[in-house]
Design a protein that fits this description.
With about 280 residues, this protein is mainly beta. It is built from seven helices and 17 strands.
Length: about 280
């Protein structure tokens, strides 16, 4: 695993004037670049013992409808990624038009350190005011595809071509417990595998969809209803881990927390609890 401690030190020298510290229950985040709005503000204000100092690495910014989004990562003293995320203004998540064609409403790269160490390389967000199939996904919601691969590689995903070649499905070790065989294929995305709990009569508020291409995990997709986002409350989505993702060894998150930041009217989507996967 590449060590990014030197990067953090160099950034600290350059951005001394922007230096600040944010403390959560168990970490201190040292900001060494222009701060990502709200990044590092934990929902827990308990003020527990500080155990680890993290460095915030900012990524790209973008616009989503009437609001903004900005990617970020946090690394520890050894340069290992601890958190990857995106901060959205509430207006970005609540101003989607109705009706609205299906398209990539936001394409946003994660920081370089996240691309190098984790399975999360870039985000493609899609607003679906009429929802989509299968049941129970008909409510207005966002699909947040966090993809593994370059933009060009993902753009080249061609479902019709795969069908002509025999439809490449993942082996059992690529599908985590609680998920079905991948079904729907979408160009520039891949095959989607739904949680069985959802498609067996569960209520959809926020779910994690698994995505595949050429038999490997190609995306993790938090799918979140507008009603859930409008509650302005912190919530968590567990992420099931398969035995293998396919491809090179990487870091795989096992949780996403959507932290509601009341003061700035933002959500900070934060992937953490990373584990190594092949």
């Amino acid at each position: 695993m590449k060590n990014f401690a030197a990067l953090a030190l160099a950034s600290a020298v350059v951005a001394t004037s922007a230096f600040a510290a944010l403390t959560s229950a168990c970490t201190t985040t040292r900001i060494v670049e222009e701060p990502a709005p709200g990044a590092g503000d934990g929902a827990d204000a308990g003020g527990g013992e500080v155990e680890e100092e993290l460095t915030l690495v900012n990524g790209k910014s973008g616009e989503l409808f009437d609001g903004t989004a900005k990617s970020f990562a946090k690394v520890n003293a050894e340069g290992t990624v601890v958190t990857v995320g995106v901060v959205f203004s509430l207006s970005a998540l609540t101003s989607g038009p109705k009706p609205h064609p299906f398209q990539d409403d936001l394409v946003l790269d994660m920081p370089a350190v996240a691309k190098e160490q984790t399975i999360l390389h870039h985000l493609r967000a899609n607003w679906l005011p009429g929802g989509h199939g299968p049941t129970p996904y008909a409510d207005p919601h966002f699909d947040f595809h966090f993809l593994r691969g370059t933009r060009a590689e993902i753009d080249d995903i061609d479902c019709a071509a795969d069908l002509r070649n025999g439809k490449t499905m993942p082996e059992a070790d690529k599908i985590p417990k609680g998920y079905g065989q991948p079904e729907l294929c979408v160009n520039a995305m891949g095959y989607h595998s739904w949680p069985k709990a959802d498609t067996s009569g569960g209520k959809f508020t926020a779910s994690l969809i698994m995505g595949y291409w050429e038999g490997n995990v190609v995306f993790l997709e938090p799918m979140i209803t507008l009603k859930t986002l409008e509650k302005k409350a912190t919530f968590e989505i567990p992420i099931a881990k398969p035995a293998s993702a396919g491809g090179a060894t990487t870091l795989y998150p096992t949780r996403m927390v959507a932290n509601w930041l009341e003061e700035s009217e933002e959500y900070s989507f934060e992937f953490d609890s990373f584990e190594t996967i092949d």
